[in-house]
Structures are given as structure tokens and as C-alpha cells.
Design goal:
The protein is α/β, with parallel strands linked by helices and 433 residues long. It has two domains: 209 residues, 3-Layer(bba) Sandwich (FAD/NAD(P)-binding domain), CATH 3.50.50.60; 205 residues, FAD/NAD(P)-binding domain (3-Layer(bba) Sandwich). Helices cover 26% and strands 21% of the residues. It is built from nine helices and 24 strands. Helix 1 runs parallel beside helix 9. 38% of the residues are buried. This is Putative flavoprotein involved in K+ transport [Gordonia sp. KTR9].
Amino acid sequence: MTTAAAHTPVAVIGGGQAGLSVSWYLSRAGIDHVVLEADTPVHAWTDSRWDNFTLVTPNWHCRLPGYVYDGPDPDGFMTRDEVVDWLSGWLSTFEAPVRPHTRVTRLRHGAERGFELTLQTDAGEQTLACEHAVIATGGYPVPVVPPFAGALSPAICQIHSEQYRNADQLPDGAVLVVGTGQSGTQIAEDLHLAGRQVHLAVGNAPRVARFYRGRDCMTWLSDMGLYDKPAAEYPGGKAAIEKTNHYVTGRDGGRDIDLRRFATEGMKLYGTLTDGHGSSLRFAPTLRRALDHADSVYNSICADIDAHIARTGADAPPPSRYVPVWQPETEPTALDLTAEQVNTIVWAIGYRPDYRWIEASAFDGGGRPMQNRGVTTVPGLSFVGLPWMHTWGSGRFLGIDRDARHVAAAIIDSENGKVRRSALRTPRYAETA
């Protein structure tokens, strides 16, 4: 059943922390709007994180509009369930006009009133018109698996990292984790600690020390201003900001993730996975180079912190450098899953954008939004919650408030401007005696 079109000045599409942050500012300014959420608010924290998940950023990074972490452990790392509780506390401080279980399947620019949205709800298909549309559906929502995944033996259980919860959910036997970004390395560690035999395909992600010279590295980096530096000014340019985030963990109070140490404890490491068929996989001979690169970044960040300490005269323990605890004797280029009793593959090779449901000229050749601090050249269309939308802090708790405030301010200025222009057009009649 299709109902008649409704209208709202502003539609925020996505009810995660980014979209709700924009709603917080719009509500305070008295701007009529609606938040359209396909599931329930901030559901991803319970639906897409594994049981032993922890933040990799210190708790003091956690700040949202009108709400900051004020618990007993600012330098600690909240678990998944603690983050859910913290977000619930924030949601109780205001009333966002959320419409849950409302999926936007199409957004068309050029409608008479700006944008026309097609909604799928429990009551059927509906349409909604608006002048402003804020896309807050997450940075890259579609899980990536390689093209040859379908050619692997059907006896192998394949899941994406977002589906992983714990070791017990997987079939008995060894597990291959593919990818060494933050999710891949932490899931590999989770399985390793659970006593599973882990095979790990190592990518080109860098790593960082958890603690260095008496403090968390991310606290040092914040003091150095790196989380506030606009993307256009970041050292290394576009190539630097498109790289995978450094891997580290907040588990058990926080520690380094050292793949070489895992190898000494029995984890089997490989280079980049390039192809597979049936139960046979092939890898590029990139393992040694990948490990060396990750360690060089680790030590480079330590050197940058050393320079900052020297400049500021901060009181800190002496410097140090990571020294490898293991080197691969050979470069393994093949794996027989059956012979090694590998019954599960966890794909942790990331996500890709998918904005095909948006009909507007706001994307580059790779399908990524062309935006400046979230605002596009398409009148009324903006984004929030994207990685590197403005700074390294964008997409994280540390930067969401600032990004949402900027996007909301542009909408508020536009809406208030319409009110002022309307007042100027209102006829004024001279008083009569």
C-alpha cells in the first residue's frame, strides 16, 4: 500500500550516534525534522560487535552533544556492553524524533520541494518530501568478500567480521582470519585466546603502541593536535588518510597487538590472500614486508612522540623502540584448508560504500561523497559520520560532536534564513487614523 506524500523540512537518514547528534542540535534550535532509522537507534553496537569487543580509543575520547564520559576510568577502554549503557544514558537526556523500522530505499534530488524519499515501513511503502537530507548511514556499510569466495568448498563456513561474536559460534577446528585491520587482528586474538588454532592472512595495515613513555599513544597524539588537523593539511595527503587504521586493542586494560608474538605462540601467518578454489588457497609472498612495515610505523609514531616531548619539555620516561621477537623463516604461499583442518574463514577485509539509492550528483568515480565537512554542492544534501569527513577524529566519538554541529549549523542557518526572507516579503500596511 502506498500512502500520500508527507513533508518535513529536514530528514536525517540513520539513527546512529552521528545522525542523532545532528538531531540534538536541530532540536535545540527548534528545527522541525525526523530521524529515519531502518532498525532501532544505535543498534549497531549490539548487532555488529563481538562479545569481547572493546573500544580502541580511551574513554575520555567519548563525547557527544551535551554528554561526555564521566566514569571512573577515563584512560580505560569501555567494553561493548559499557558503550551500549553509555549511549543509553545519552539518549535519555533528549527526545529525538526517531521513526524506527523505517528504511529509506530511494532518495531523489530535484523534486519540487528538494528531495523525495521512498520509505519502506511495517505499514508499507510511503513517500516523504524534504528540503534537507542528512545521510548518516555510516561510512561504508557493505561488507567486502573477495570474488573467489564462492568458489571455495561449501564445507567451509564463511562469515564476515561483522557477523563474528565468539569462538563458540564457529564449527570446531582451525580458523583462517583474512585481514589485519583493527577488526581482523582483534578477532584473531580473541580466537587465539580461546584456544583455537588461528591462521592469519596479513595485510598492509600499520600498528601503533598502546602505551608509550607513560601514557596512551592516542592521548599523546591528541596533545599533538593530530585528531584536529583537517584532512587537507594532514601529513602525507590523500594517500595517508585512505590507509587502514593502525591496529591495537583496548582489551584487558589495553595492550599492543604484536603478530610476531602470536607467531611464537603458534598462530600461523601468511601474506596477502590472492586466490582460492575448493580447499586450496594461494598467498602472495608479502608477509615479511607487511610485518616490517607495521613495525616501522609503530616506531615512527614513537619517534614523533619523542619529538613532541622534546619540544614541550613534558616529563616522561625514557624512549624505546620495538625490536622484532620473530621473523618468518619462509614465505608461505599456499594453504590446504582440509589438510590443516580449517573449517571457518572470517573475512575481515573491510567494507565498501553503496549509495546507489541516492539519486543526486554528489559522488566521485569511486562512489564516495564529494563533500566539505559534510556539506555537498547539492543544495540541502549533507553527510555525517564518515571517516576523515573533516579530521582524523571524524567518524569516531572524539569528532562526531564537532562534525554534527557543523552540518546542523548549515541547516539551521538555511532554515532561519527562510524565516527572515519570509518576514521581509510580508506586506506592511500603514496605520490608518
